[in-house]
Amino acid sequence: MRSxxxxxxxxxxxxxxxxxxxxxAADDDAAQSRDRADRERTTGLGVIDPTGYMNYGMQLYQxxxxxxxxxxxxxxxxxxxxxxxxxxxxxxDYVKGANTKDTTAFSNARIAQNPNQWSAGPTSTDAxxxxxxxxxxxxxxxxxxxxxxxxxxxxxxxxxxxxRYADFELYKNGISYTQQNGFVSAGxxxxxxxxxxxxxxxVIQSGDILVTVRYTNNNTPLVDVHIWVAKTTKLxxxxxxxxFGQEYHTHGSKLYGYVNVLPKLATTIxxxxxxxxxxxxxxxxxxxxxxxxxxxxNQWAYEYDGSQFAEVGINFSAYGIDPSLYAMTQGSxxx
Length: 335
Hints:
Elements: E1 18-25, H1 53-61, E2 68-71, E3 78-80, E4 83-92, E5 102-108, E6 119-123, E7 131-140, E8 149-157, E9 164-171, E10 175-178, E11 182-185, E12 196-197, E13 203-205, E14 209-215, E15 222-230, H2 231-236, E16 242-249, E17 256-263, E18 271-275, E19 279-280, E20 283-287, E21 293-294, E22 300-301, E23 303-305, E24 309-315, H3 316-319
Antiparallel strand pairs: 1-9, 2-4, 3-4, 4-7, 5-6, 7-8, 8-24, 9-14, 10-11, 12-13, 14-15, 15-17, 16-17, 18-24, 19-20, 20-23, 21-22
């Protein structure tokens, strides 16, 4: 079951239109070696634009509860160090205070639920569900659309409990929100966009993707990749470049759901997940953002506490869900 959650919207052209990030408590060399330079300008090539970091940092250090987003440090589709940076976004979220509710939490938004049924508002969020920092980044491991497509995502929560989940939902079509109408999704398959196949199992339409990270009781964290399909698709089609797994998540609809996908070959390594667990006591040495973060004591800090931060790198090409692998979807950056 999922507790309070929240969203991060991305609306780039010809890219996945919406990213929703969620974290929740468990109650029922990463894939490509990267370091702090992926989030700020230090000695490497910073993906996220840190402009204004001193202003943000001062407000957060003074205890102000602010929220903001930052885009990529380069124009979309820039070739940087021989790789195509498609797009990236970072979001600093509002957090729950000692005597206040979180004003931007989802009070009703579960895995596989129709986005049109989501609701949000002030919520007493559990610390393990209270997102502080989050980012998403797409790139190709080369300068052309035929090079491997990688997705990177990171998420920080105030809590650092041992049993948690983190979800990255990647929506192909946009989701809007107004106070009058609530959430309105452009997806036509129970509020989502479904993956479609020809009789030979080739993708003819890409759709929504769910990446789930599970880390429990100090065990090795696990990552699962799912795509949105009709139940009949799961039963009747055999994908040409990947395999359907046994998991099928649905909520309120018997027609559609998220099915987990696996590389065609069991020996294929499709990515990795990392949780910052190298620490003494609860003190970690993983640097946070240029403007700082909130540690597990709900205080401003420049380093993450142990197990606060999780990030994932997934090679969508290795998983067989890269649109450039199929004739009907070639030419699309990532969907």
